[in-house]
Amino acid sequence: MLTGRFGDTSRRPFLEGRIYLPRQRSLCFDVSFLVDTGADRTMLMPDDGRASGLNYSQLTGNETIGGVGGPLSCFEEDAIVVLSFSLCNLE
After folding, report:
1. Are strands 62-65 and 13-20 parallel, antiparallel or unpaired?
2. Are 39 and 66 spatial neighbours (Cβ–Cβ below 8 Å)?
3. 69: confidence class by pLDDT, cuts 50, 70, 90
4. If pLDDT is split at 50, 70 and 90, which confidence band does 9 have?
5. In the structure, what pLDDT confidence band is assigned to residue 85 with cuts at 50, 70 and 90?
6. What three-state secondary structure class fits 51?
C-alpha cells in the first residue's frame, strides 16, 4: 500500500519520494509527486528542479509533449524514483 497525503488546498493525492539522476551523479533529492493514474510519464516541475540544484545545461533530448494545458517543452532524463510504502497483511 502506498501512503501519502492530500494537498492542503488542492485535495489532490501526493506521495513523497526521492529522485536520483544517474547522469548527474551526486544529485539526489526529495520531492512530492502528484498521483496521476492516467499519466504516461512522470514530470518534474521547474520549481522542484531549481530547488534541487538540477543543472539544466546537462540535460539532453529536448522534446515537445502535449497535454490538457497545451504543448510543453520538456527534457527526457533517466531517473530512479523511490517512493515510501507500507506493507500490510490482507488476510
Report:
1. unpaired
2. no
3. confident
4. low
5. low
6. helix
Could you read off the pLDDT of 45-61 as tens digits, one per residue? 888 888 888 888 888 77
For the question of whether the overall pTM of this predicted structure is more than 0.85, the answer is no
Question: What cell was used for 74?
Answer: 520538456
**Alpha-helical regions (H) of 15-82:** 46-52
30 is written with which cell numbers? 526529495
Q: How far, in Å, CA of 58 to CA of 85, rounded? A: 32
In 53-83, which positions are buried (b, 16+ CB within 10 angstroms) versus exposed (e)?
ebeeeebeeeeeeeeeeeeeeeeebeeeeee
Distant-in-sequence contacts of 22-25, Cβ < 8 A, 24+ apart: 22/78, 22/79, 22/80, 23/58, 23/77, 23/78, 24/54, 24/55, 24/58
**How do strand 62-65 and strand 72-75 relate by DSSP bridges?**
antiparallel
